[in-house]
Specification:
The chain is α/β, with parallel strands linked by helices. The protein has helices at residues 16-29, 67-77, 95-109, 123-128, 138-151, 188-197, 208-224, 258-266, 286-301; strands spanning 2-6, 33-36, 82-85, 88-89, 113-118, 156-159, 164-168, 181-183, 200-201, 233-234, 237-238, 275-278. The protein has 9 helices and 12 strands. Strands 1, 2, 3, 4, 5, 8, 9, 10, 11 and 12 form a 10-stranded parallel β-sheet that branches. A two-stranded antiparallel ribbon has the order 6-7.
Length: 302
């Protein structure tokens, strides 16, 4: 099982120096991947998520480095870790522009890209990008088809409901013959969509039981779509604390001390989970964070 960590692109440790340090240490320590995410803006007014009661948007989103620029920077200072997005909000970008940016990153990194895509959920971000939220759903199928077209042989062309690409040469192409695309999906509809058009899923890991149920539903959906479940990637994201001391009652799955997390990881062997992303920053300053990452990877690799 692969293990990845999030770069400090937001939150109290977010800075160019800390991003570089965590990336280099992840590469040196033996982590398999480093990841970024996209947040275009943080509204000051409360926001409703999927029809719920409006809530203040988390403080962590006050600062969020752009994911692809960050990973391009990281590509230049690392050698082997995969570079993932968890996630880029695909519908907020013209598909041809997004395809070219991803292909450029795959070239600059020597073929280390994992493309994590999501639909987005914040109305203010859709408004800022001048994209209607009604595009969610069927728009994701089209984005993936357009990306694949742009990454394929020239001349490229694509004609869809939202994307129109005249026959053209679009370069560079990615290094990888098939760039992996994973969807940040947890709903039944999102899981079925990922099963049809993506190469895997990048869901939130709320609990072990919920994660394994989701994995089973995804594998079943892949079979129903006439595809090979063994060729798909399952990369759950755990936005939970990594702490120096063990957590007690109420400890979240994949959270707590390095030993507790390593034990949770061991319990996922053979369950169909291929790759785990630790999405939250460790407690403490950057030196403490690096020490916790070092302890965790040593325990996990045992």
């Amino acid at each position: 099982m692969k293990l990845g960590i999030s770069l400090p692109t937001s939150g109290p440790l977010a800075s160019a120096d800390n991003i570089a340090r965590v990336a280099r240490e992840a590469d040196r320590l033996g982590y398999d991947s480093v990841w970024t995410y996209e947040r275009i803006l943080r509204p000051t007014a409360p926001v409703s998520m999927d029809g719920g009661e409006p809530q203040p948007v988390p403080e962590i989103y006050r600062l969020a480095y752009d994911p692809l620029e960050t990973l391009s920077y990281v590509a230049a200072i690392t050698e082997r870790v995969q570079l993932g997005t968890s996630i880029v909000q695909a519908l907020l970008h013209p598909a041809a522009v997004l395809a070219k940016r991803f292909a450029t990153l795959d070239q600059l990194s020597g073929g280390r890209l994992v493309v994590g895509l999501g639909q987005g959920w914040m109305p203010q971000e859709f408004a800022a990008a001048n994209v209607p939220m009604s595009r969610r759903g069927r728009g994701m199928d089209e984005v993936v088809a357009a990306l694949r077209a742009c990454w394929g042989p020239d001349p490229v062309s694509y004609e869809g409901e939202f994307t129109h690409i005249a026959e053209s040469e679009i370069n560079p192409k990615p290094v990888q013959p098939h760039v992996p695309i994973v969807f940040g999906s947890v709903t039944p509809g999102g899981i079925r969509r990922a099963a049809r058009v993506a190469d895997g899923i990048n869901p939130m890991a709320f609990s072990r039981e919920a994660l394994l149920q989701l994995v089973e539903a995804y594998r079943s959906a892949v079979k129903e779509a006439g595809r090979d479940p063994d060729s798909m990637i399952v990369v759950p994201r755990a936005n939970v604390p990594l702490t120096a001391e063990p957590m007690g009652e109420g400890r979240p799955f994949l959270g707590g001390s390095p030993r507790q997390i390593a034990d949770d990881l061991a319990g996922l062997e053979g369950t169909g989970v291929d790759h785990v992303l630790l999405g939250a920053q460790p407690e403490g300053d950057i030196d403490q964070a690096i020490a916790l990452y070092a302890e965790l990877i040593e325990l996990a690799r045992r």
